[in-house]
Automatic annotation (TrEMBL):
Its cofactor is Zn(2+). It comes from Salix dunnii. This is RBR-type E3 ubiquitin transferase. InterPro entries: ARIH1-like_UBL (IPR048962), E3_UB_ligase_RBR (IPR031127), IBR_dom (IPR002867), TRIAD_supradom (IPR044066), Znf_RING (IPR001841), Znf_RING/FYVE/PHD (IPR013083). The keyword Repeat applies. Might act as an E3 ubiquitin-protein ligase, or as part of E3 complex, which accepts ubiquitin from specific E2 ubiquitin-conjugating enzymes and then transfers it to substrates. CDD domains: BRcat_RBR_ANKIB1, RING-HC_ARI6-like. PROSITE patterns: TRIAD, ZF_RING_2. Belongs to the RBR family. Ariadne subfamily. SMART domains: IBR (SM00647). Keywords: Metal-binding, Repeat, Transferase, Ubl conjugation pathway, Zinc, Zinc-finger.
Amino acid sequence: MDSEEEFDMQDAAAESAEDDFYSGGEEDGFDSDDADVADYEFIDNDSDDSDDLISHRHQQNYTVLSEEDIRKRQDDDVTRIATVLSISKVAASILLRYYNWSVSKVHDEWFADEEKVRKAVGLLEEPVVPFPDGREMTCGICFETYPSDRLLAAACGHPFCNSCWAGYISTAINDGPGCLMLRCPDPSCNAAVGQDMINLLTSDEDSKKHSRYFIRSYIEDNRKTKWCPAPGCDYAVDFIVGSGSYDVTCRCAYSFCWNCTEEAHRPVDCGTVAKWILKNSAESENMNWYGT
Ligand SMILES: [Zn+2]
Ligand SMILES: [Zn+2]
Ligand SMILES: [Zn+2]
Ligand SMILES: [Zn+2]
């Protein structure tokens, strides 16, 4: 796969152009790991026979991440997007989640068509209805009337009372990771509900669950990172896709194949290993069936 080097060179050229654009030629606009992000956008993840790439790079092609490392990286990415796009960190984290934590994807989509991105993600610039509108307003869920300081609205302005909001958010958090893409409760509205609002209205317990989904999403929805599959291990592994051997060794000492997450199996390819595993499990099922 000789095109790999060409991609790298193109990326490097594109990147330095970006750096110049955003930081007036200084080197601090985008840090070096942006190259990784760009790499995986171009390289097909499905190929197993990447052994011929090993000779290209000699440094370790993966990094083991603790929960603290993950939170720091996530926060760095959010801060970077907030700075480059001149938006709040709350909005930046909604965008990153929507684009599976790819900094380069958020960046490219935003500058290609900001309006389209805002619409898709639910980041409104202007409220749809004025809020607050008068001294008293009606909650859109329970239809009770409240003084407007007892109601809250996302950027769209649709008013709901504190207790209806709290119920809505708590239900979403307990329904699963969909709570990371929460929208206004008004069925016709897709305005995003940000972390700031969620923090304001959740119990400690729900807040912890939400924060767990947030960090899990950063690993599980991101194409460059995976959790270590060893039971009870909390480390994740960040892998430079397209960089050669998939064998990685976690800080817990477990060695596994980053591509298929089975035990390390070099030089056998992932497809063959999958067939072995299937065959073994079919055989053991047969044994259960015919034995005793
Ligand atoms: Zn209400
Ligand atoms: Zn709304
Ligand atoms: Zn591990
Ligand atoms: Zn494998």
